[in-house]
């Protein structure tokens, strides 16, 4: 693929097909957006794989926080095995410890569980006590594809300076900008050299409504603009 990458959150087959029709490059598959996205079922991933050729980056997360004790890691590792068999192309996860640092023990355990598939470190990085230290911890981990980040816990609008700093530090190629991403943010992000974009609520009327392919098409055009 050349140009920019556009990733769309999909909850089901209908979302996935609409995302493909609109020109998305890949999907993030989640369940329960009321909890900010949890692990979907293998049945959902298999159903999407049967109807849509786009690669599925599948969420591994049990609850709305970013903690993972050994029992959670074991459960998510089992989930990953079933989801790989169902058609996952990669995974999305990331954990913080009680001090707000990247939980490398939990994260590395899941990297091993999903290997050799690529993975995205999700927005836990935006909630770290020391964001720069979190990036240093994550950026060299094996098979890392992207880091889903808004630059700030409150969204891309507040995080633009951090995203620019990450791009200036040489991390632009792994930044997947998302979380409160709006069309007005895209020109600046492109100027920074960021070329991967993640949208969810921006391509649907609400989380109870399906993805609208026309909105995906608008984002496709937007992120490709020179």
TrEMBL record:
Pfam families: CutC. Signal peptide: none annotated. Coiled coil: none annotated. SUPFAM superfamilies: CutC-like (SSF110395). It comes from the Bacteria. Belongs to the CutC family. This is Copper homeostasis protein cutC homolog.
């Amino acid at each position: 693929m050349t140009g920019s990458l556009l990733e769309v959150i999909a909850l089901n087959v209908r979302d996935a097909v609409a995302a493909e029709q609109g020109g998305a490059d890949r999907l993030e598959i989640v369940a329960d957006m009321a909890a900010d996205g949890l692990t979907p079922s293998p049945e959902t991933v298999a159903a999407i794989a049967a109807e849509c050729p786009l690669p599925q980056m599948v969420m591994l997360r049990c609850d709305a926080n970013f903690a993972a004790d050994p029992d959670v890691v074991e459960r998510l590792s089992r989930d990953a095995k079933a989801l790989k068999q169902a058609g996952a192309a990669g995974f999305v996860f990331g954990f913080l410890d009680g001090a707000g640092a990247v939980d490398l023990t939990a994260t590395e355990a899941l990297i091993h569980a999903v290997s050799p598939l690529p993975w995205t470190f999700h927005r836990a990085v935006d909630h770290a006590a020391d964001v720069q230290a979190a990036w240093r911890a994550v950026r060299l981990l094996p098979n890392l594809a992207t880091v889903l980040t808004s630059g700030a816990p409150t969204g891309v609008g507040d995080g633009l300076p951090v995203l620019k700093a990450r791009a200036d530090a040489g991390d632009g190629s792994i930044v997947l900008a998302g979380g409160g991403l709006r069309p007005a943010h895209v020109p600046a992000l492109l100027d920074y050299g960021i070329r991967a974009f993640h949208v969810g609520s921006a391509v649907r009327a609400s989380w109870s409504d399906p993805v609208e392919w026309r909105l995906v098409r608008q984002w496709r055009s937007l992120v490709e603009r020179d």
